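[agent] plan:
  1. take the single chain provided in the ticket
  2. run structure prediction with default settings
  3. attach structure tokens to the ticket
  4. add a short note for the reviewer (M.T.)
[agent] executing step 1
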Amino acid sequence: MDNLAGKLLDKDGMKLVKLDNDWDELLKEEFQKPYYLELRQFLIKEYRTKTIYPDMYKIYEALKLTSYQDTKVVILGQDPYHGVNQAHGLAFSVQKEVAIPPSLLNIYKELSEDLGCYIPNNGYLVPWARQGVLLLNTSLTVIANWPNSHRNKGWEILTDTIIQLLNEKDAPVVYLLWGRNAKEKVIYLTNPRQLVLTAAHPSPFSANKGFFGCRHFSRANRFLRENGLKEIDWQIPNI
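[agent] step 2 finished; step 3 output follows
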């Protein structure tokens, strides 16, 4: 077995993802199911033969940074950014040295109108994740310059399971579902203690069709406050 395969699987081909929080126990059985083991084998080949984003050590960054217990807000994306050095495992977020993508810039514009936040000089959303905002893509990997290239390979089964687990949580959670793909997950969200907010996608192609003016950030904070939880500080600091 080469070094790359060894990073993804142990000698028995059964290595489990280690997230170092409560997601490990919650997803332990999921990581042993046939569809997931097939996905892992697929990823070994893909990372060996193609340029795949994010780096394999960042695939599960969203779950590592935001535990199940700490999750207060969920923002769903579709799949990782497919440009050089952009993706690092968090939906809509890019690494510090990378230009802010158009969709994220529109998110910042809505934040400015909604809560008066200044538009920062970076798109690094880790401060949100550390406050309990789960920035989850429905597909966790992508081929360089090929959006949706790892769609229907198994990721959606895993991320749908994550959404369903959050729906079972006996605590307030806010879901921000932007665009058609994210809205499709509404069928899993039935918990009366939780809040689902939907709007158009912040992409330049659709932001004017209902994303701008949705005021999701202030509405999410109001819901958290009314349920005795600490609000999210949505201001991303300059670097």
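[agent] step 4 note for reviewer: Strands lie at 52-53, 73-77, 133-137, 142-143, 174-178, 195-199.
[agent] ticket updated
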